[in-house]
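It is worth pausing here to work through a concrete case rather than discussing structure prediction in the abstract. The textbook approach is simple: state the sequence, then state the predicted structure, then interpret. We follow exactly that order.
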Amino acid sequence: MTAKPILQAVNHDGGQTENLRLIARPKTDIVAIPSKPDLRSYQFTSPIWKVSIPAEDFHRARVTILWNNVDGFEFDQAGLIFIRPKPGLPEPSAQNQGDADTAPSYVKFGLEQFQGAPICAVGASNPQLDWSASPVTASLTEVTVEFVRYGSKLVACVFQKSSTEGESSMSVVRLLSWPLEEVEEDDPPIWIGVYAARPDLESKAEGHNFLASFTDFEIELKGGNTFQLG
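Step two, the predicted structure:
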């Protein structure tokens, strides 16, 4: 029987995992090349709950984001994260964020505050920046997002409930070709988890943290073993 993956805290002190919450302080993000050229490249300061698994074992990850960010700031983020560490930095952190040679590749997928309302956004780096967005209902309070393996590719899907019937509909938001390709035997395990970020590019959020809440975080491994992690 496959052992249940263990949730680990990155860039925060941990706590109870039954109710998954993360507190993102201002100026926290995971980004390779920021949109503002005067900011530090290769940032890895966001709080994360993650599991580490061999790349070949991963099949699917899903989480529901509980969104209550009415008084939020531009570019606040919460969602799933896929991280592929480099051999030179298998455990990136705020204390060791990496550089052009060692910073990890990543895919962030979830909700992001944009022009005063949430959008569903995918941000990735390998190391070139890739960003896309799709609309969601402005008044939503939760949304479910999912990563699914498709060969060496990673597919990002979103599930939204109908406002009239309460049923969920699934949409494919993005397909990325590189996340699981050319994995070497001695490569570090990949990370799958949830993250929160408050980039605060306009420096307006000093003293105001962003609380991100999640539920129904589950990971399915190759062979069908599925684990509920929060």
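Step three, interpretation. The domain at 21-222 is CATH 2.60.120.200 (Jelly Rolls). The chain has a mean pLDDT of 92.
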